[in-house]
Design goal:
Number of strands: 0
Structural class: mainly alpha
Radius of gyration: 19 Å
Largest sheet: none
Number of helices: 3
Shape: rod-shaped
Length: 86
C-alpha cells in the first residue's frame, strides 16, 4: 500500500475516532446541568458562596466540552475532506 493510501486510511480512522468522541461528549453534557441543578438545590445560597463557585466551575467545564465538540467536528470535516481528495 502506498504511503498516500496509508495516510488516507489514517485520516479516515482519525475522523471516525473523533466522531465517536464527539458523540460521547454530547451524551455526557446533560450531566453538567444535573450537577449544577443539584448544587443549586442542595447548597444554594450558602453563606460561603461555595454553591456559586461550584456552579461556575461546572459551567466553565461545560463550555470547554462544547468547545471540544466543535473542535472534533471540525477535525472530522477536515480529515474526511482531505481523505476524499486522495
Amino acid at each position: 500500500m502506498s504511503q498516500l493510501m496509508q495516510l488516507r486510511d489514517q485520516l479516515l480512522s482519525v475522523g471516525q475516532d473523533a466522531r465517536r468522541q464527539a458523540q460521547a461528549l454530547l451524551a455526557f453534557k446533560p450531566r453538567f446541568d444535573t450537577a449544577a441543578g443539584m448544587v443549586a438545590h442542595l447548597i444554594g445560597g450558602a453563606a460561603t458562596h461555595t454553591d456559586l463557585e461550584m456552579i461556575a466551575a461546572i459551567q466553565a467545564a461545560q463550555k470547554k466540552v462544547d468547545e471540544a465538540i466543535i473542535a472534533l467536528q471540525q477535525a472530522i470535516v477536515a480529515a474526511e475532506r482531505y481523505a476524499s481528495r486522495m
